[in-house]
Design goal:
eight-stranded mixed beta sheet, six-stranded parallel beta sheet, alpha/beta, about 450 residues, about 20% strand
């Protein structure tokens, strides 16, 4: 039995922030109280009034394994995640081969069991022909099914109306959608070609514009309303799309919306400086869209904040715009970026905890995680709001060894991360090479 006592921590949990002591016994939180007397031989960590938060549950990452491990892998990216205070993740199916069968899901779980530093779950990818695989999913073991509506690679694009209707009608798990409408994107590209102009990175939000997003996201929301589906629309990027969603508590919603940290941080004004490093799909758009997203977090229209972490090599990103792949490495600095928003009074720390830990746990019915509660798994992150974190390309744990935040100094610092009661990061380095993560479990609300 291992025990750790964290004293003098400002525990931020369930819309409250108060100084408390927290005892961890083995994998779980045993006691939370104003003052806990240390036991003999117990490890004691004085938090010195710093924030103790439930670890972030990131519902959207691309860790690139299997098949794309020159970009990243479950071992490297999960280590970067815990260094950034992310203790659980849900990973996407667009790897090689795509995760479209139960056997492919099982294979990824086997990799994670051996190598993941954070807790893990994996989405099944929808195709136009794997409805039976979707219908066979166990809601207590599967976080959801990912549907690429209008933009994808490999066999993951689902466009046929009858296939989409069957998925929305029959899926036993939450449906997650990437919403960009292909015909709009093709028409926008054609306009460039017809004018003789070769697109460059500053044209990215014009090619993948608000109309392309809205056409697809409104279609998804319409299908969800028709079939009473559980729908979670990923990475909203436009002010226009926000009208599709309602404010309020996530417990009362079947249709929810997510924003990602880079769309809350960057705008089209950053393309001249960062170029392809911030090329992503859906595109980073206008400053007015970013401002609308920030406001939607505050009003409860945006329910969850995630990363869409998607690493590529430096060489890949430094190709010509048309060849450079879309995606950014984000997990190590996602929470820090949100805490900068807190520092600038855009959000409260309680809101960040709600959007990154409580709400993902509620939306996906995660068992005994996402909160600092007695009996829950001890997935925790200790953060100093007064120490800074400078970022360079080389001081990351990413396999790709670069960050879009390089050159920025964040206003806070991750001091420690615990996964299932095990301290895995001490503010400077990973302090274990053993895999600390466990598979996420889900309860079936039905």
């Amino acid at each position: 039995m291992t025990t750790t006592l964290i004293t003098n921590a400002c525990v931020v949990n369930e819309n409250r922030a108060e100084v408390m002591d927290v005892r961890i016994v083995d994998q779980r939180i045993e006691k939370i109280d104003k003052q806990i007397t240390a036991n003999e031989n117990e490890q004691v960590i004085d938090a010195q009034g710093n924030w103790l938060l439930p670890g972030m549950i990131d519902d959207q990452v691309h860790f690139r394994e299997p098949g794309l491990t020159h970009k990243g892998n479950i071992a490297s990216e999960s280590r970067a995640a815990v260094a950034g205070g992310i203790t659980s993740y849900m990973e996407m199916p667009n790897v090689s081969p795509s995760t479209t069968t139960q056997a492919a899901l099982d294979f990824k779980y086997d990799i994670a069991q051996q190598h993941s530093m954070a807790n893990y779950a994996f989405y099944l990818g929808a195709t136009e022909s794997n409805l039976e695989d979707i219908k066979a999913l166990d809601p207590e073991k599967t976080c959801g099914v990912k549907v690429f509506m209008g933009a994808s690679t490999g066999n993951l694009l689902v466009e046929k109306p009858q296939a989409l209707e069957a998925i929305f009608r029959d899926s036993p798990v939450t449906i997650l959608t990437h919403c960009e409408y292909g015909p709009v994107i093709k028409n926008n590209l054609a306009s460039f070609h017809n004018s003789g102009k070769i697109p460059v990175i500053t044209d990215h939000p014009i090619i993948r514009d608000a109309n392309a997003c809205y056409q697809s996201s409104s279609y998804a929301v319409g299908l969800a309303k028709k079939f009473q589906s559980n729908l979670h629309v990923l990475h909203i990027t436009t002010e226009k799309e926000l009208e599709l969603f309602s404010p309020g508590a996530i417990e009362n919603k079947r249709i929810t919306a997510e924003a990602c940290v880079h769309h809350l941080w960057f705008s089209e004004q950053d393309y001249p400086r960062l170029g392809n490093l911030i090329k992503c799909n859906p595109a980073i758009k206008a400053e007015s869209d970013r401002s609308a997203l920030l406001n939607a977090v505050n009003t409860g229209v945006i329910d969850i904040i995630a990363t869409d972490h998607a690493p590529h090599t430096w060489q890949e990103k430094n190709q010509d715009y048309n060849q450079a792949p879309a995606g950014l490495p984000l997990v190590q600095h996602a929470l820090l970026s949100l805490l900068d928003h807190v520092k600038q009074s855009r959000f409260t720390i309680e809101q960040i905890v709600e959007k990154t830990a409580h709400n993902p746990a509620k939306r996906f019915n995660v068992v005994e995680r996402g909160f600092i509660r007695e009996g829950y798994y001890a997935d925790l992150v200790l953060v100093s709001p007064n120490q800074t974190t400078p970022v360079t390309h080389k001081n990351t744990f990413y396999h790709c060894q670069w960050s879009p935040f390089a050159g920025h100094e964040f206003s806070s610092k991750i001091l420690s991360t615990w996964v299932n009661g095990q301290q895995v990061f001490d503010g400077q380095q990973l302090i274990t090479e053993k895999s600390a993560g466990l598979p996420l479990s889900f309860f079936n609300p039905n």
